[in-house]
């Protein structure tokens, strides 16, 4: 596959991700045929938003009101963290260079700018994801072999 074709596929996948967000879809699956033995299967998905709990009707004034539970702490969105390393593409994340070998990094590892953190496989190409800055790996947000979306948080480096 030529570089232009790969660039076209990346642009196509990014357009699908945008379409997914704009239309508030949870999943989109497309197959592009290039020839007899050449095709591209793409599945772009995201977690469905969590529905709010239904609100109960107010109790009559004569009945005692039960104590309301304390409001839950706001859930931190890892993608909004200033140290988040996000996926530059849709693909499959691998935390080690090959099966059975040691992971590139682990929680607590000190990394330098440009050091490989993990690999995202996209269209049968292994893309090394470098550390955007030096720091310490605080959280790893993906599992080995897990599918990732464009812009999904992969790790937190502080």
TrEMBL record:
Transmembrane segments: none
CDD domains given in the database record: biotinyl_domain
Pathway listed: Lipid metabolism; fatty acid biosynthesis
Domain Lipoyl-binding residue range list: 82-158
UniProt KW keywords: Biotin, Fatty acid biosynthesis, Fatty acid metabolism, Lipid biosynthesis, Lipid metabolism
PROSITE patterns: BIOTIN, BIOTINYL_LIPOYL
Compositional bias annotation for Pro residues: 61-72
Record InterPro entries: AcCoA_biotinCC, Biotin_BS, Biotin_Carboxyl_Carrier/Decarb, Biotin_lipoyl, Single_hybrid_motif
Coiled coil, from the record: none
Claim: Lipid biosynthesis is one of the keywords in the record: yes
Stretch list, region Disordered: 55-94
Primary role: This protein is a component of the acetyl coenzyme A carboxylase complex; first, biotin carboxylase catalyzes the carboxylation of the carrier protein and then the transcarboxylase transfers the carboxyl group to form malonyl-CoA.
Stated name of the protein: Biotin carboxyl carrier protein of acetyl-CoA carboxylase
Organism: Rhodovulum iodosum
